[in-house]
Structures are given as C-alpha cells and as structure tokens.
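Repro:
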Amino acid sequence: MNLSEDFIFAQKTEIEARLAKYNNRATIEEQLRERGDITLYQSYKINTVSPFLRRALDKIKKGTYGICEVCGRSISTERLKLVPGALAHVECDPKKKSKENR
C-alpha cells in the first residue's frame, strides 16, 4: 500500500500538533507551579508517547512511514489515523506481545 502525499502531510501535521501539545512548556510550568510536579498523564505523553511521534516524523522524512518495523508490511491507514505514531501492526507490537506472555 502506498500512502498518498495528502495523507502523509495530514499525519505529519497531526503528529507535530500532538508533540506541541504534549510538550507545551506553559502547561508544564503551570503544573510545576501548582502541583510541584507534572501529572502522570503529562509525564506519560512526554516520556512515552513523544518519542514514538518523533520516530514517526523521522520515518516520514525517510519515506518509510506506515511500514511496520517488526515485519516490514504496510500498517493500515485506519491504525495510522488512530495512532499517528504507530511503528508496528497491533499484532506485531512488542508491548502487546509482552503483555500476552504475562
């Protein structure tokens, strides 16, 4: 499956918007002032989700966006719309496999 330039542009725009939102300096500073720490959710977005989004942007630059890093097959557009930073199929996702083995 080849992703259209319009789809990739839309995904890139969405990924950049999410990164800006998750790493918003004003939000972080406000939480630090009010709470003395950032919320667990904010921490998750910064430390867990943002690296995947950055990797997805790198894949867009390299022309490999939408290709599963585990099996090399195309990731469905439905999954990419839902999870723009998806680097693997749900079935190939190492986190899912580790949960199944518990």
